[in-house]
Task: structure prediction
Amino acid sequence: MTSIARNGRTDVWLRIPDEPRRAETRPLTVSFLTDCLLSTVLVLTVAGVALLISLHFLDTLFLDARFNTLNADLEENPVAWMGTVAEFGAAVGAFLLALSLPRQRMRYGVLAAILVYFSLDDAIRIHETMVLHVEKLLGIQSDYGRDMWPLIYFPVAGLAFWIMWHAAGKVPDRAGRFVRTGLLMLGASIVCEMLGTTWAPAEGQAPSAAYALEVAVEKALQLGAWPLIAAGLVAMALTCVGSIARLEDPAAS
Result:
């Protein structure tokens, strides 16, 4: 700012320094938060999958599958437990979508309930117990259990797949791509598991290299899929809440 000061008969112009400018910072928007969420989850997912594969091959190929905590084919290892947590995270994302979209609350509420059940199923192995009862009822050998549970779960899993795939198509950004990529990875993992029956070892036998590879691919796809789906659903919900973008209401179309 400039001012004039009188000094006798002479006008003296005095320059008063302007106030220092504040450093410009990027606003903390919902778009920025969702980008950070998706990028962080992607890095952690890649690291988790790499750790899972490394520990699995170490146990099955070099340690004769002596350590259950390292074997990806079992549920006792900590890295596999991450998948259960990610499934629950996907349920949280679906619940947030139900809260954000009143006209679609029933749809995403059902999705949240299905995903909570899937998370519980992985934690306490409900589908394995169910398959044993079905096999006993039908007189089928247990070797076909890996092929049977996807057929039993197909109606519920198919409904969840359709809801998530449809929702992801309404968001043309990273969140939608994360969800759809995760769904395709889950589908591929189910195919791997059903094909793995061919190489499954008999009880008491050590797994072959082919079976170890199949399990590694299957579990890597599963572990990689659920965090992507969870992050995508949460990001979609945050986007709706922040009014940065809206999911199109099918009722309006």
